[in-house]
Design a protein that fits this description.
Layout: E1 12-13, E2 23-28, E3 31-36, H1 47-61, E4 68-73, E5 79-80, H2 84-93, H3 96-115, E6 119-124, E7 127-129, H4 131-138, E8 141-145, E9 149-151, H5 165-173, H6 175-184, E10 188-189, H7 190-196, E11 201-203, H8 208-220, H9 224-257, H10 260-270
Parallel strand pairs: 3-4, 4-6, 5-7, 6-8, 7-9, 8-11
Antiparallel strand pairs: 1-2, 2-3, 9-10
Length: 280
């Protein structure tokens, strides 16, 4: 599945996913790096790119020689949620199976990031909303540029938060604050995000890569058994609760997706205007 290399110190890419596609996976043992690579679409995710992301994370999780996974993005946006054109297309076709699959991939990605033995670091260079925010919240450590912003904006589009976004927010800030953030759909600055505990550190844009690399190096040198056991202790009960609730959440997401309000919200998003919701 992977490109062979005699020199394991050099980077190599997962070419079987038709690189340079929307997701790139590179290795430099003991480190793996995933790059969201669709900057012209603000690194939004559709079914293909989400599936590729899940495959890449699984590939890392299965490697015993890897200790750290870093997740970054090309361009000036980390991940601005689900691709609105993808949502509009499957909604017009009534393709609920694709939407359900997209949501299940989100759940799988969260559980993989939490269960994998590798330490997961996200480096956030810009907007992180919807699935983008979920990736940040599911990681073990995150650093953000001062120019980054964060939010769960699904409600503004007539959608129920996907990719376990509301559950992850509750885990970090409690039910009341999480519900406020979801219902209002307001974007948080990087300074507000670090104050709420959504990210660990905020640095200048020029220092983002250096700070990320420093943390990657530190965790690559950490004792892997300790990291693995610590992740189990921290997350085991939590991801069990997520599994129990995920099917219930997905059913709610699909009901909202089938509504007229959702159609209005997605069309408004495509046209960059405010939606008018009728409650049906």
């Amino acid at each position: 599945m992977f490109t062979n290399s005699a020199d394991m110190k050099s980077w190599y890419k997962l070419t079987s996913l038709m690189e340079p596609g929307p997701v790139i996976l590179e290795f430099r043992t003991p480190v793996a790096a995933i790059t969201l690579n669709h900057p012209e679409r603000r690194n939004t995710l559709d079914l293909l790119s989400a599936s590729m992301l899940e495959q890449c994370i699984r590939a890392v999780a299965e490697r015993e020689d890897l200790r750290v996974l870093s997740i970054t993005a090309a361009g000036d946006c980390f991940c601005a949620g689900a691709d609105p054109e993808f949502l509009a297309q499957i909604q017009a076709l009534g393709d609920i199976n694709s939407f359900r699959q997209f949501l299940r991939i989100g759940r799988n990605v969260l559980l993989l990031l939490r269960r994998m033995p590798q330490f997961v670091i996200t480096s956030v260079n810009g907007t992180a909303t919807g699935p983008g925010l979920a990736l940040v919240l599911a990681s073990d450590w995150s650093v953000a540029s001062e120019q980054a912003c964060f939010g769960e904006t699904s409600v503004d589009d007539g959608l129920f938060p996907g990719w376990t976004g509301h559950w992850l927010l509750q885990e970090r800030v409690g039910a009341s604050k999480a519900t406020e953030l979801v219902m209002l759909g307001e974007l948080l600055t990087a300074a507000e995000a670090v104050e709420l505990g959504l990210v660990n550190r905020v640095v200048s844009p020029d220092d983002l890569k250096q700070t990320t690399d420093r943390m990657v190096k530190k965790m690559a040198e950490a004792p892997p058994l300790v990291v693995r056991e610590l992740k189990k202790c921290v997350y085991e009960n939590r991801y069990r609760k997520c599994e129990e609730k995920s099917d219930f959440e997905i059913d709610g997401q699909i009901r909202c997706f089938l509504s007229e309000d959702s159609r209005a919200g997605i069309q408004a998003m495509l046209r960059n205007r405010k939606a008018k919701f009728e409650g049906r």
